[in-house]
Amino acid sequence: MPDRPHHHRRPTYPLAHAARHKPRRWPLVLRFAKGAIHTLIVIPVLLHSLFTVIVVYLDRHVTGNLGLPASIVPSLSIVVGLMLVFRNQTSYDRFWTGRNCLTTIGTSVRNLARVFLVSARGKEPGEKLTDAEKADTEKVIRVLVAILYAVKHNLRAEYNIPPASGIAEENGIMTAKAEYFSLLPDGLKGYEDQGLGLPLQLTVLVESYIRRGFERKWFHGPQASQMTVQVNGLVDAYGRMETIRTTPIPVAHLIHQKQVLALFNCVLPFATVDDFGWWAVPIVAIVAFTLYGIEGIGVQLEDPFGYDKNDIKMDGIVEDTRQEVMVLLEEWRLAADGHSEDALGGMFI
């Protein structure tokens, strides 16, 4: 019996990519990059600060009567606060829903992979699978993992199955998509130019395998029905993620929010110039920094499927699930080839 090939394991653990935390070199209060929203708000903060400088200068050295009653600030701040609370709650709900949907898809892939691998065995006890049956099962497991990649890329508007040149080395490093392409069945033709998303196309291959497994008597009727429910749940979760991706916050709300924020921060210098003089400049800058920062957080969370630091860690989550499923596939392959004693804990004996 041939020895099991020796592989160099890279250090890993469950959820290693999705839950990785680097040690913080600086406290968060001192961080102005890598996750911060300062670049989104620096221009409005500077403009409002400059406007305050002009107001204070005119009040002190030209007109002398630009001040407004300070009581105007509380009435405006209530409106601003309500709008910002609504915006951030809506944006975080989109973020949280997207994360839960991705978990639903990952769970469906795990469940289906587990059932497929455990159920794929010879018709009689001790009988080995045929080469065609083994190849069919390996293909569908790879398709399951490919669904995760297809969902990720479609939500990022990275459509089409690229040509072979897309997996070439770039600067000596294989592109991130190379692993994804290797999971797709040979000769797979995409129909995205006709409006068919690749995730849905791949679920058809999974459903076809369930039918073949039922005909091979690998699954009984209720079991096959339950697996179809898993596929339906996967498609439903992807549909909800598509809804988040394709349904932005209504433009009327965005316009009014921007106008209310600008109005409030333009009125604030007039309400503070009499009491604070030149101190009104840093006061307005701090208020503008706070309010526009809250709005900037909502902008970051509104579409959580991209590459920003504050987006869902889709790359890490997909990689963790891929690694789990591929380890299961490797152990199943050993058991199917008659090397059961080499498989981890005899999972597929």
Order of adjacent strands in the largest pleated sheet: 1-2
Shape: elongated
**Proportion in helices:** 55-70%
Share of β-strand residues: under 5%
End-to-end separation in angstroms reads: 17 Å
Find the count of extended strands (DSSP E, 2+ residues). Answer: 2
**Helix and strand succession?**
HHHEEHHHHHH
Poorly predicted parts: 1-9, 163-174
Determine the structural class based on helices, strands and strand pairing.
mainly alpha
User: Can you give the mean pLDDT?
Assistant: 83
Number of helices: 9
Largest sheet: 2 strands, antiparallel
Nearest-angstrom radius of gyration? 28 Å
SSE topology sketch:
Layout: H1 38-61, H2 72-119, H3 131-155, E1 169-170, E2 173-174, H4 178-183, H5 198-215, H6 221-246, H7 251-276, H8 280-302, H9 314-336
Antiparallel strand pairs: 1-2
Helix pairs in contact: 1-7, 1-8, 2-3, 2-6, 2-7, 2-8, 2-9, 3-5, 3-9, 5-6, 7-8
Organism: Zopfia rhizophila CBS 207.26
Protein name: UPF0187-domain-containing protein
Keywords: Ion transport, Membrane, Transmembrane, Transmembrane helix, Transport
